[in-house]
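Closing statement on the nicotinamide-adenine-dinucleotide sub-project.
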Amino acid sequence: SAGTLPDDWDRPLAGRVAVVTGAARGIGASIADTLARDGATVVAVDVPAAGEQLATVANRVRGTALQLDVTADDAGARILEHALQRHGRLDIVVHNAGITRDKLLANMTPDKWDSVLAVNIASQLRINEALLTSGDFTDAPRIVSLASTSGIAGNRGQTNYAASKGGVIGMVRATAPLLTAFGGTANAVAPGFIETDMTARIPALTRQVARRLNSLQQGGLPVDVAETVAFLASPAAGGVVGRVLRVCGQNMVG
Ligand code: NAD
């Protein structure tokens, strides 16, 4: 009624429904937390093997969990069905699920190429296609894709990963014009070294150098990435289209 505002009137994502892939841990879990803080209802997606961690995140953000491998043929359809059935709409998709299978090029076996390209880029393409052709996506969709500084500058031992993340940047640039026609945006976030399980496996010396090079004088944290994703998903970023925002604590060239 006149004179009363809903409790969450000042939260930028109030009333929005967001899907976050790879949400069971690391950067994805932090993105789920941050979007929920900003008022969104979150669908947390991850593989069945991560089910327990995924349920913890979904409960924490008062959203729902969807156990799903993003490389499944029907991943886009299942995401849409879940969001519509449980929450009545879908506004924001954060493509965060990603893997590394590092090896120097001479030892980069086909399975290492295929698995990394399948999870990191092909899944994003196919889910976007399913959502954008369904007619059931919101009228002002926000798509935020996790790229990486490896996809811009390359990284020794990561030809497959760099190719996948460079591919994400190209895909975002090509998708953005399709979305602007109906008030939507697509953008990418390119983190540098962030302290997660993914980077816990890299050599100690490499980690030490990465921390020293960062303006923060430490490794980046998942929340640094999550805040940038939340901005790109928010109404405030409505004019930011087809961009790559680096969150790497460095003034990188290239
Ligand atoms: P992480 O390994 O800690 O977490 C990744 C999550 O994705 C896991 O929960 C995993 O189960 C899930 N996942 C993997 N394959 C999946 C699939 N097929 N279907 C559904 N879920 C799947 O990784 P992170 O460090 O949090 O990375 C998150 C994203 O950020 C990735 O896209 C990664 O490439 C990107 N990134 C990370 C860094 C970094 O330094 N950590 C830097 C640049 C970019």
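Residues 110-134 form the longest helix (25 residues). With this model delivered, the sub-project is considered complete and its resources will be redirected to Aim 3.
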